[in-house]
């Protein structure tokens, strides 16, 4: 009898292809949306977290202004070379101190050109960020006094030089031309999705004089020696800089010094927010899918009630009718659920490869999305049937 | 001569719909007894309770009061499932409104009672096609109800009722949508079933011509039996 019931259920599904299709579609949309969104959100979080933790826990970032919600940072004045010198001489326990100034410039070699991030800094930059050279060398002291030497990132190398050796060639950066002394190791995309290898490093002095036209320093990266606590350095630097920037007691800093955990916190707050937002969008899709299913089921309830009446009248037991409707609901829900899971994972997969974030699926979320949609399918497919099947056959037949 | 145990017996059966002002006595105390192998026609004006009585006989509905006995067994003592089994194994019902499954082919509609009897697919199909042939619908087996005329749908409904070889055939205006020729063919079929297979036939009709096929005519008026005459006496 079970086999017959299955056949009856499949017949009923085929007999009304549009209704079946729309029911499955509702489930597919809900399940796929939830899975895609949550997977993308999780991947982004994982990526950001791993990127930041890769930077190392002994780093401090110092920037003018205060960051965070509701705070403008534009009015705070930049740092300068004397600040760097003061930190270097007065703060103990530092392994590296790298001043950074940055601009976007057109770089040209041969017939090729592109817009890249040009960073004025010192050799300490590579030490502080633990960034090695693929070939060539770092800046010499003589070059740091203002020579036009530069180190290029992998993207710049491959896009402009292709298979020719870049070392020793002359690269045009904005209005100046500098000779390439080194090529950086490939680093890949940052947590925010920017290409970290699309970069040209040059000595800070050279950058200030010939590109920026001022003596400002945007960011200072500090790296603590092994075993030295970053929070102690952070406090010392903060005290020193307050003094240097003449900040009165009780007034807020007009600069910020953050270590990695604080950066991580700020970033994960953002990505958690993102995941939450994506989750909300997905929940709405799930709900919309659910309401779709509900609609279809309720619209067809009269027809199905009559059908139940007919079946009861010609000798079907209540339990047989219910089993048929249950099988129908299960088949549609499970089919929709499976298609939804596959579609969701597929969408998520193409999205994460496009965004270049890891593919992090969450089984509980898949189960939850699947369960919720299946439940809607069951509730709205099965429960009206249960009511109809408990009527006297003639009652069910009379429904209009 | 003592009458044999009646197959169908109504004892003061009533059926009440609605309440208060809108109270309707569809059946207002009906006593009735029909023996096995009888061919009974039920007549009467519209709204006199004919369909209501048929539904109770067919175990599709239950009386408000009184007792309906099938083969001497009071049906009020039977469970829902027992009612269903009675319908499944004893009764073929032709509804006034056909009640075919929509978007389902004629042959699948006719097969359905056999599905619930647990018959194998091949045999089921054979019998369904034969039943369709008997009502003159050989060529229409794969048509769905919406592709059939009213008269053709009615004949599918008749085929569905007789496909199980029921002990009792209940037909609520089985020729209501048929022309004279088709009506005659159907009535010849019903008469043959009654005569050759000893199937008890109870049939509602408005047409004296059709009632004339029956051996007994019961007339309902206002939910009561007004007259009950054997045809030999009528003639
Ligand atoms: N579900 C119901 N609710 C309320 N009243 C009903 C219901 N079903 C039938 N009736 C009433 O019961 C009475 C008998 O109805 P029934 O259908 O038995 O008549 P009938 O003799 O079959 O009529 P017809 O020849 O038109 O088919 C009618 O007055 C009808 O209005
Ligand atoms: Mg009627």
UniProtKB/TrEMBL annotation, chain A:
The chain crosses the membrane at residues 21-40, 273-301, 322-349, 361-383. It is found in: Cell membrane. It comes from the Bacteria. It is a multi-pass membrane protein. The keyword Transmembrane helix applies. Residues 20-239 form the MacB-like periplasmic core domain. Residues 280-393 form the ABC3 transporter permease C-terminal domain. Keywords: Cell membrane, Membrane, Transmembrane, Transmembrane helix. Belongs to the ABC-4 integral membrane protein family. PANTHER family: ABC TRANSPORTER PERMEASE YTRF, MEMBRANE COMPONENT OF TRANSPORTER-RELATED. This is ABC transport system permease protein.
Automatic annotation (TrEMBL), chain B:
It comes from Kaistia dalseonensis. SMART domains: AAA. It comes from the Bacteria. Gene3D superfamilies: P-loop containing nucleotide triphosphate hydrolases. Keywords: ATP-binding, Nucleotide-binding, Transport. The keyword Lipoprotein does not apply. InterPro entries: AAA+_ATPase (IPR003593), ABC_transporter-like_ATP-bd (IPR003439), ABC_transporter-like_CS (IPR017871), MacB-like_ATP-bd (IPR017911), P-loop_NTPase (IPR027417). One of its GO terms (molecular function) is ATP binding. This is ABC transport system ATP-binding protein. Belongs to the ABC transporter superfamily. Residues 8-234 form the ABC transporter domain.
């Amino acid at each position: 009898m079970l086999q017959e019931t299955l056949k009856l259920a499949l017949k009923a599904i085929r007999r009304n292809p549009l209704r079946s299709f729309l029911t499955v579609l509702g489930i597919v949309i809900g399940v796929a949306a939830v899975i895609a969104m949550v997977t993308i959100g999780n991947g982004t979080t994982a990526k950001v977290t791993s990127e930041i933790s890769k930077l190392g826990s002994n780093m401090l970032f110092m920037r003018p202004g205060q960051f965070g919600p509701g705070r403008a940072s534009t009015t705070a004045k930049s740092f300068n070379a004397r600040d760097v010198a003061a930190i270097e001489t007065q703060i103990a326990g530092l392994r590296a101190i790298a001043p950074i100034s940055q601009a976007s410039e057109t770089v040209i070699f041969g017939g090729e050109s592109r817009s890249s991030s040009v960073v004025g800094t010192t050799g300490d930059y590579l030490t502080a960020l633990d960034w090695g050279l693929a070939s060539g060398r770092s800046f010499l002291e003589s070059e740091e006094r203002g020579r036009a030497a530069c180190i290029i990132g992998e993207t710049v190398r491959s896009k402009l030089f292709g298979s020719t050796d870049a070392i020793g060639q002359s690269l045009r950066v904005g209005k100046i031309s500098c000779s390439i002394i080194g090529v950086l190791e490939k680093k890949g995309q940052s947590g925010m999705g920017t290409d970290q290898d699309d970069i040209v490093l040059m000595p800070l002095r050279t950058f200030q004089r010939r590109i920026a036209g001022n003596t400002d320093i945007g960011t200072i990266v500090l790296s603590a020696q092994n075993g030295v606590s970053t929070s102690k350095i952070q406090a010392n630097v903060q005290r020193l800089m307050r003094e240097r920037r003449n900040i009165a007691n009780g007034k807020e800093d007009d600069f910020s010094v953050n270590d990695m955990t604080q950066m991580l916190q700020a970033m994960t707050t953002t990505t958690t927010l993102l995941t939450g937002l994506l989750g909300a969008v997905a929940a709405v899709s799930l709900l919309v899918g659910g309401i779709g299913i509900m609609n279809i089921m309720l619209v067809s309830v009269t027809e199905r009630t009559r059908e139940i009446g007919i079946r009861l009248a010609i000798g079907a037991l209540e339990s047989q009718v219910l089993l048929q409707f249950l099988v129908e609901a299960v088949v549609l829900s499970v089919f929709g659920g499976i298609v939804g899971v596959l579609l969701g994972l597929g969408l998520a997969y193409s999205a994460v490869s496009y965004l270049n974030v890891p593919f992090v699926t969450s089984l509980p979320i898949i189960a939850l999305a699947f369960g919720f949609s299946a439940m809607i399918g069951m509730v709205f497919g099965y429960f009206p049937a249960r009511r109809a099947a408990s009527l006297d056959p003639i009652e069910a037949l009379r429904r209009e | 001569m003592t009458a044999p145990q009646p197959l169908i017996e109504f004892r003061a059966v009533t059926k009440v719909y609605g309440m208060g002002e809108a109270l309707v006595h569809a059946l207002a105390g009906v006593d009735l007894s029909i023996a096995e192998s009888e061919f009974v026609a039920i007549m009467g004006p519209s709204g006199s309770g004919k369909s209501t009585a048929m539904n109770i006989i067919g175990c599709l509905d239950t009386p408000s009061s009184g007792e309906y006995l099938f083969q001497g067994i009071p049906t009020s003592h039977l469970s829902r499932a027992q009612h269903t089994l009675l319908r499944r194994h004893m009764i073929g019902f032709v509804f006034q409104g056909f009640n075919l499954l929509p978007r389902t082919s004629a042959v699948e509609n006719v097969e359905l009672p056999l599905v619930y009897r647990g018959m194998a697919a091949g045999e089921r199909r054979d019998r369904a096609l034969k039943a369709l042939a008997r009502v003159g619908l050989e060529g229409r087996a794969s048509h769905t109800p919406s592709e059939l005329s009213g008269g053709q749908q009615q004949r599918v409904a008749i085929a569905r009722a007789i496909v199980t070889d029921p002990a009792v055939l209940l037909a609520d205006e089985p020729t209501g949508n048929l022309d004279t020729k088709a009506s005659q063919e159907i009535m010849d079929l019903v008469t043959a079933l009654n005569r050759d297979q000893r199937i008890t036939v109870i049939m509602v009709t408005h047409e004296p011509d059709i009632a004339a096929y029956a051996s007994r005519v019961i007339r309902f008026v206002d939910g009561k039996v007004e007259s009950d005459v054997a045809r030999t006496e009528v003639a």
